[in-house]
Amino acid sequence: xxxxxxxxxxxxxxxxxxxxxxxxxxxxxxxxxxxxxxxxxxxxxxxxxxxxxxxxxxxxxxxxxxxxxxxxxxxxxxxxxxxxxxxxxxxxxxxxxxxxxxxxxxxxxxxxxxxxxxxxxxxxxxxxxxxxxxxxxxxxxxxxxxxxxxxxxxxxxxxxxxxxxxxxxxxxxxxxxxxxxxxxxxxxxxxxxxxxxxxxxxxxxxxxxxxxxxxxxxxxxxxxxxxxxxxxxxxxxxxxxxxxxxxxxxxxxxxxxxxxxxxxxxxxxxxxxxxxxxxxxxxxxxxxxxxxxxxxxxxxxxxxxxxxxxxxxxxxxxxxxxxxxxxxxxxxxxxxxxxxxxxxxxxxxxxxxxxxxxxxxxxxxxxxxxxxxxxxxxxxxxxxxxxxxxxxxxxxxxxxxxxxxxxxxxxxxxxxxxxxxxxxxxxxxxxxxxxxxxxxxxxxxxxxxxxxxxxxxxxxxxxxxxxxxxxxxxxxxxxxxxxxxxxxxxxxxxxxxx
Length: 498
Ligand code: NAD
Ligand code: 9W1
Known about the structure:
The protein is of the alpha/beta class. The chain has helices spanning 6-13, 44-54, 59-68, 87-98, 115-124, 137-148, 165-178, 190-205, 209-216, 225-236, 251-274, 290-301, 313-321, 329-333, 351-356, 375-380, 413-416, 423-442, 454-465, 477-483; strands spanning 36-37, 78-82, 102-106, 127-130, 158-161, 219-222, 244-246, 282-286, 305-309, 325-326, 338-341, 361-365, 385-390, 393-397, 403-407, 449-451.
C-alpha cells in the first residue's frame, strides 16, 4: 500500500500522536533521475590524471581487474557505496564497474571528498555519484539516500560501507516501518535528526520501501572498526537483516591501515603543518599498538630520539626490545619536543601535562578521533590564548608565558594536516572490499558477520607482490607434507598473530 496522505493514514490506524508538522525546511527531496551531484564537473580532467597516476600504486585493484574483469562476476548487480569519495575510492569504483556492477556512490564523511575524484567518476559515468567537500548534514543524508535508490525505485543488491551509515539507514528504515512510533523518539545528534526526518518523509510516501529494499540486499562489506562494531551489535541482537563481511579485520587491511599507513602519514602531517626538522628532536609516542609502532618507527627513521608510554606490559616490553625508552607521560612531558598520541584512549595528554611542556612543544594526535588530548583544558582555560598560525595549526599561549603548538585541533593529524593514506595502503583495503563483494554476490550466507577467509587475505597480499618485485618461494611437496600445509595455502592457522 502506498500512502499518499500520511496524516489520514495515521489518524485512522494509530492511537499515538505522530509529528504532523510539515517537512523540516532544510529537508531536500530525492531526485531519482539525477545522474550525479558534485562540486564542479569541470574538475573531471584533473581527477582522470590523478587516477591514472594511482594505477601503479594500486596494483591489487589493477590485478583484480585483469583477473576477474573478463568473467564479470558482479554483472547484473547493483552496488551502493558509502565511502570517502577520494581518488583511491574512484579506483575502487572503476574496479567494481569493470567486474560488471551498476553503481551508486555517496561519501561517508562530509569533509573527505576530493572534488576532482567525484567529478571524474560522474563524468565517466562508472557510478552515479553524490558527494562534495563540505556537505551539510542534511545534504549528507540526502546524498546517502540518493545513492541507495535507483531510478526505478529499487535498492541495491550489495553495499560497500565505511562507518555503517548506509547499513544504519536501511536498518532504521525497516525499524520505522515495523513500528512507526520510533519516529517519535527523541534524537540525540544532528545526524540522527537528519536521518529520522528522511525516514519520516519516506514512511509517509511508502510505508514498505525500506522493508522491500532490505529484503533484496545480499550483503554489506564494512571498512572500519566503528562500522564493524555496529554490525556485531546488530548480529548479537539478532537484528542484522543481511550478511556482512568485516573487511577491517583482514590482516592485509589492518596492518596497512594502522602500522604501514601511519608510518607514512604521521611525518607527512607534522611536516606540512610545521616544517619541523625531526632529526635530533625528542618525540614522545603515547601507545605502542600498531599505530604507535608505525609512528615510533617513522620518527626513529628520521633520527629522532623516541620515548614511548604504555599501559600494557607486553607492548611496553616490545617497545623496550626495539630500543625505545618507556616512561610515563608525567616523566615525558618535560622532555619531549613533539608529542603524538596513538592509544585510542581518552585524555592521554591532559592540561597538567601541557602545563609542564617545554616552550613551543608540538602536540598532535593520530589515535582516537577527538579526545586523546584534553583540548577542553585549553578551550576553557581563562588565561590560555589561541593564535591561529594557519589552517589546522594553532599556537596556544599558557598562563606561564610558555606556548604549545597544537595540530588539527587535537583531531587526527594525518587526515587534518595531510591527505589520508597513500594509494598503496588503500589498494590493500579496497582489494579486500572487492573480494568481499564477489563473495557476497556468489555465496549463500547467513545474516551474520563474517571475516574473509585466510585464502582471500593471502590472495590480496599476493596481488601486491608483483608490483614490488617480490619473488615468493613455493613449498615443495615434501615440505608441504612435512609441515602439513597446502602448497597453495592457507599458510597459517586462524589464531596466528602476524
Ligand atoms: P591498539 O589497541 O593496537 O594500540 C593502542 C595502544 O595504546 C595499546 O597497546 C594500549 O595498551 C595503549 N594505551 C591505552 N591507553 C594508554 C595510555 N593511557 N597510555 C599509554 N598507552 C595506552 O590500537 P591501534 O590499532 O594502534 O589504534 C590506536 C588508535 O588509532 C585507535 O583509536 C584507532 O582507531 C586509531 N587509528 C588511526 C588511524 C589514522 O589514520 N589516524 C589509523 C588506524 C587507527
Ligand atoms: N579513504 N580513500 C582525508 C579518512 C577521514 C580523508 C578521512 C581514504 C582514502 C583513514 C580513510 C584530507 C582522504 C580521506 C583524504 C583526506 C579516513 C576519516 C583514507 C584514511 C580514513 C574519518 N577517516 N583514509 N584515501 N579523511 O585515506 O578512502 O585528505
